[in-house]
Amino acid sequence: MRDEDGYFGEKVAAGYDESSADMFRPEAVDPAVDLLAGLAGDGRALELGVGTGRIALPLARRGIPVHGIDMSRAMVDRLRAKPDGDSVGVTIGDFAATRVEGTFAVAYLVFNTINNLTTQDAQVACFQNAAAHLRPGGCFVIEVGVPELRRLPPGQNAVPFNISPTQWAFDIYDVATQAMSSNYVTIVDGRAEHEYYPFRYVWPSELDLMARLAGMRLRDRWEDWTRAPFTSESRRHVSVWEKPAG
After folding, report:
1. Residues in domain Methyltransferase (predicted)?
2. Would you say 52 and 75 are in contact if contact means Cβ atoms under 8 Å apart?
3. Would the pLDDT of 102 be above 60?
4. Separation CA 203–CA 70 (nearest Å)
């Protein structure tokens, strides 16, 4: 870990919105906000890994009280600088363990953020933390990719996802430990710079078991926020687990 902001310090935060511009388009944001607002109803929403507010801010503009947890002060500073940035409450801390006051109708993790927890124990703790924040009948929502191990031929552990004259980007998988990393080799002034971000990939069925350990059950699973059916060919999923009503 590089500093108190983890891997999402000032250098990453400064260009995060631009580098993820496609995820800020209305067609990417609106379906997520629609689904989360429906689950929140008249209750509060808790975002784990709130970042620069891509989902939290438009959700708050729908009239949903939103609170976020994030380790990165640099990312949260970007949220605060945006219009209505003070409408989202934020607690700085590890979202797998940090508690905030009150209960919530929905807690959620988007854009593969569950993979930022690099051990199974931390991911299990995250589910337990989410469940502890939910009111009876509340829901925990995760958006995450399906591990792309089918793209790994025998003897290969790397999957490229961007090749250009100025950047090579690839994921490296360890199928024994489920550790993975995203690697970026960027050419700057004729020199190569390497950035490395560790993750832990996780299967849908494994997430279901984590939910059961936290006292929740699977309610819905779709391919994306539009509620398209989840199939064996789906490359990601949006899953909803529910805390028993009583």
Report:
1. 46-138
2. yes
3. yes
4. 24
* Tokens 């906000």 -> residue: 33
What per-residue confidence (pLDDT) applies to 2?
Answer: 55
Q: How far apart are the first and last CA of the chain?
A: 41
Q: What is the CA radius of gyration of the chain?
A: 18
Answer yes or no: are the C-beta atoms of 170 and 160 closer than 8 Å. Answer: yes
Contact 217, 138 (CB under 8 A): no
| Residue partners of 123: CB distance under 8 A and separation at least 6 | 96, 114, 117, 200, 202, 210
Region of 31 please: left (phi>0), alpha (psi -120 to 50) or beta. Answer: alpha
Q: Are 216 and 137 in contact (CB under 8 A)?
A: no
Beginning with the edge strand found earlier in the chain, give each strand of the sheet holding 45-48 in spatial order. Answer: 89-92, 66-70, 45-48, 104-109, 134-145, 236-242, 217-222
Backbone angles phi, psi at 177, to 5 degrees: -115, -10
Token pair belonging to 215: 């006292």
pLDDT band at 246 (very low <50, low <70, confident <90, very high): confident
From CA 157, how far away is CA 177, in angstroms rounded? 13
